[in-house]
């Protein structure tokens, strides 16, 4: 029953974006390994999610169901997925790097007596060995490591959000559906959710799929120019992002950093303002459909990857753009 499995995380009744991105990775692995692609969900009353999932190019949807799965709990989800692994014997299971997965997956890996590669930035199937190659940064981003779990199954990893594009819906596709009532698997409940409280995050934190991003680099130079950059972003209805260089100048807080050690985004348009185009920064924006670079140095590396380049001082170019908009 070997297969490539993707754990589909549901949050507030919706599939998480990262899970749909992982279907893209899983689809490629399944094609390369000639395996079935299985989307696995854990929950209660999963009909709506199953209905959504069968619109994507998965071979099978496995729904692990029990009323106690309404809310996430470490023990019960570990038990459910462990039962799934024993029954379906996946060759590999992909998870998004989410708070839930950080709690769940190490425990599941230990229960399955297998390895886990966390926070990967890519995953591929190695034809010679028939093993999955997990790639991630190490030592604070100073090195890239390719990691293999040679002797144990399933091979398990968590993958960072934004490194794959979301898979697209397909028509005329028929996925098998296995619904599994997990009543027999339920053990003593050690944790009970008494109340859930929603915490409202700022717009910058929740919009993980911005269409347009204005990236601020060290070339913006001083804080008194931030207002101009914010006006520019507002005029375009864009989100702000930053290079590490800009954050080191304290132009924006750390959470705005795009790149190897920051956010991975794939907007339609990325406007890099005063950003040189270091590989570590570009790693976070490689999924952008169109890159526009504004830089005063004609030899800046960003011009090698940009679709459109404007060579000049951003402090005179941005006000001109604002007038035009
Ligand atoms: C292990 C490691 C991990 C890293 N991870 C990340 C990461 O995740 N994200 C990240 O961003 N960086 C990361 N970095 C840092 C990265 O290598 C670069 O140093 C950083 O991205 C540079 O930021 P910058 O392009 O803003 O600054 P700079 O490289 O200093 O570039 C500034 C640019 O602005 C231009 N400029 C100056 N004045 C103007 C003007 N008036 N108008 C127009 N253009 C102007 C200059 O020509 C220059 O090209 C990492 C580095 C290491 C070692």
UniProtKB/TrEMBL annotation:
Pfam families assigned to the protein according to its UniProt record, in alphabetical order: ETF (PF01012), ETF_alpha (PF00766)
Record's keyword terms, sorted: FAD, Flavoprotein
InterPro entries named in the record: DHS-like_NAD/FAD-binding_dom, ETF_a/b_N, ETF_a/FixB, ETF_alpha_N, ETF_asu_C, Rossmann-like_a/b/a_fold
Keyword hit for Flavoprotein: yes
Keyword Endoplasmic reticulum recorded: no
Co-factor requirement: FAD
GO molecular function, one term: flavin adenine dinucleotide binding
Protein's organism: Alkalibaculum bacchi
Signal peptide range: none
Domain Electron transfer flavoprotein alpha/beta-subunit N-terminal intervals: 4-190
Gene3D superfamilies linked: HUPs, TPP-binding domain
Name of this protein: Electron transfer flavoprotein alpha subunit apoprotein
Family matches, as SUPFAM superfamilies: Adenine nucleotide alpha hydrolases-like, DHS-like NAD/FAD-binding domain
GO biological process: fatty acid beta-oxidation using acyl-CoA dehydrogenase
Family membership noted in the UniProt record: Belongs to the ETF alpha-subunit/FixB family.
Cofactor annotation remark: Binds 1 FAD per dimer.
Residues bound to FAD: 218, 243-244, 274-281, 295
């Amino acid at each position: 029953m070997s297969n490539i499995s993707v754990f589909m995380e549901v949050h507030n009744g919706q599939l998480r974006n990262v899970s749909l991105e992982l279907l893209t990775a899983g689809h490629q692995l399944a094609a390369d390994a000639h395996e079935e692609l299985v989307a696995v969900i854990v929950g209660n009353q999963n009909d709506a999610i199953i209905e959504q999932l069968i619109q994507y190019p998965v071979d099978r949807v496995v729904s692990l169901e029990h009323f106690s799965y309404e809310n996430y709990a470490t023990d019960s989800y570990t038990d459910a997925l462990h039962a799934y692994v024993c029954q379906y014997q996946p060759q590999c299971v992909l998870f998004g790097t989410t708070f839930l997965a950080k709690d769940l997956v190490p425990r599941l890996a230990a229960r399955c007596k297998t390895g886990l590669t966390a926070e990967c930035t890519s995953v591929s199937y190695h034809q010679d060995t028939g093993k999955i190659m997990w790639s991630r940064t190490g030592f604070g981003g100073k090195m890239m490591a390719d990691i293999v779990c040679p002797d144990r199954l399933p091979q398990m990893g968590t993958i960072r959000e934004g490194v794959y594009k979301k898979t697209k819906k397909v028509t005329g596709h028929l996925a098998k559906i296995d619904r599994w009532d997990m009543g027999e698997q339920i053990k003593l409940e050690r944790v009970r959710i008494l109340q859930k409280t929603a915490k409202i995050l700022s717009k910058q934190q929740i919009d993980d799929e911005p269409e347009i991003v204005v990236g601020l680099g060290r070339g913006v130079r001083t804080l008194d120019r931030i207002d101009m950059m914010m006006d520019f972003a507002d005029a375009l209805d864009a989100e702000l992002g930053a290079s590490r260089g800009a954050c080191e100048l304290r132009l924006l807080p750390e959470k705005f950093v795009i790149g190897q050690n920051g956010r991975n985004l794939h907007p339609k348009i990325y406007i890099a303002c005063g950003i040189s185009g270091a590989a570590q920064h570009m790693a976070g924006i490689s999924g952008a459909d169109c890159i526009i670079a504004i830089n005063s140095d004609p030899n800046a590396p960003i011009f090698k990857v940009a679709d459109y380049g404007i060579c000049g001082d951003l402090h005179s170019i941005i006000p001109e753009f604002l007038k035009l908009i």
